[in-house]
Amino acid sequence: MIKLFLNKILLFLAPILLVWMCIEVFYRFVPNNYTQKASEVKKNYDSEVLVLGNSHAFYGINPDDFSMKTYNFSNISQSLYFDELLLKKHLENFPNLKYVVLTVDYFSLSQIDNSSEDIYRKYYYEQYMDLNVPLISKFDPKSYSLSLTRNLEMNVDLIKSWIDEKTLIEGNKKGWARKTGVSSKYNNYETAVDVVAKNEDGLLDFNVNLNRLERISAMCLKRKVKVVMVTMPVTSYYASLVNKLKLEKLYLSCQRIAFNNDSLMYLNLFQDKKFDNNDFYDTDHLNEKGAEKCSKILNQFIAEDSKEL
């Protein structure tokens, strides 16, 4: 009787275990943005400029438009929390590094650690990029099984995307992910309403991330590396919907920390009139043309500073 019961349990669990194993193999062996970044950064340790940050940098800063050798180490939804961890791991391996670029956007300074965007991504940084992530407990089963980091529907969608696109990798060998040269159907006011609502956390406490910027600056100062904070451009749709008080506090915080620290510089492109809505793929990500424009502006900003050294 017990044997029959156990056999039925095993028969019930067999397809579940098979699906779990297949998804786990997928996560372990299919290359993605994280595995590519972990591999390519080592081939670019001779870079003079290192770009960190979120998707605004991932799609908007092209190393080919820089006069110094540049590597784009940014990624989708990469917060200052992970920028700091990545810099700690790799900084000493860049003998020629002169500048580190950090995106400090509307939501960057108020963003909490272990936000909804980090719920599954933190495991990717740990497993794919060999980071020690303090947010993850050694008793967390997701740390040992990546298939558990997302629900079944999300896992299936990811596999479908891989089948359709034939890859999960967006960035090129220098870390930049190109958006098409035209605007998409998502570049409009209605989409901006949803995007800003998603980005808005309602928080005005910047202390945690300002302290993080100070630590990053101190880390770089030891290597005589300057940090360039850049607030990336957005469409007029996006800009019109943000909390103006929070935006002003962001500007003032970045200006203040740069004024008080010689190794920190700040470039604000949020509503820069050199950009118009045709430079964007969607409401807050630059297309190929916009990325070229942004990258050249940033390169000029760095070049002018380097002349003064």
TrEMBL record:
It comes from the Bacteria. Keywords: Membrane, Transmembrane, Transmembrane helix. The chain crosses the membrane at residues 9-30. This is DUF1574 domain-containing protein. It comes from Flavobacterium macacae.
